């Protein structure tokens, strides 16, 4: 699922706090924006195997 809310990709260097927008560029500094939601899946998840096993047992 893709989020509609986007955040300025350069906010750490150019702004005091995150600048959110619905467009593809920042309304303040015109930098590109990126998806503000974290990734739902991490391939390096150290506990993924245990969570999946627990989920299989609870069915």
From TrEMBL:
GO BP annotation list: pseudouridine synthesis; rRNA processing
Plastid as UniProt keyword: no
Region (Disordered): 32-59
SUPFAM superfamilies to which the protein is assigned, alphabetical: Nop10-like SnoRNP
One GO CC annotation: ribonucleoprotein complex
Superkingdom as given in the UniProt entry: Archaea
Family named by the database record: Belongs to the NOP10 family.
Designated name of the protein: Ribosome biogenesis protein Nop10
Lineage start: Archaea, Methanobacteriati, Methanobacteriota, Stenosarchaea group, Halobacteria
Gene name, Swiss-Prot/TrEMBL: nop10
């Amino acid at each position: 699922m893709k989020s509609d809310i986007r955040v300025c990709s350069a906010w750490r260097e150019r702004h005091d706090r995150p600048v959110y927008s619905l467009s593809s560029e920042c309304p303040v500094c015109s930098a590109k924006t990126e998806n503000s939601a974290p990734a739902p899946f991490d391939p390096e998840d150290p506990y993924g195997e245990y969570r999946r096993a627990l989920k299989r047992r609870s069915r």
